[in-house]
Specification:
Helix 1 packs across helix 2. The chain has one domain: 2-Layer Sandwich (Ribosomal Protein L30, Chain: A). The chain contains 3 helices and 3 strands. By secondary structure, it is α+β, with helices and mostly antiparallel strands. A 3-stranded antiparallel beta sheet has the order 2-1-3.
């Protein structure tokens, strides 16, 4: 008998998907529709047709979900969009739920 016996241990690794948070865009009467479409294309990577449809949805319903992301990504996208809106002088608003 060998003094060195190999013991194999089986471990199951379960990868858990991160919780997803919704980014909500809110309507206001001052931010231009063009600016909103630009944000949806540049920051949320929507195609121009989807961006236009989402912008109209926000305009008609008052708010809409523009994406679902892990928390850090959702907050980063919101902060980036809000900083650009502030630089342009728009009262644009997004929230994370």
């Amino acid at each position: 008998m060998s003094a060195k016996s190999a013991v194999k241990e089986r471990t199951d690794i379960q990868v858990k998907e991160p919780k997803q948070y919704r980014v909500i865009m809110h309507n206001d009467d001052f931010t231009t529709m063009e600016f909103v479409v630009e944000i949806l294309i540049d920051i949320f990577h929507k195609d121009p047709v989807s961006a236009e449809a989402l912008m109209l949805d926000v305009h008609k319903k008052g708010r809409a979900v523009v994406g679902q992301y892990p928390y850090d990504i959702a907050v980063t996208k919101v902060n980036t969009a809000m900083a650009r809106a502030e630089a342009e002088g728009f009262p644009f608003r997004l929230s994370v739920e």
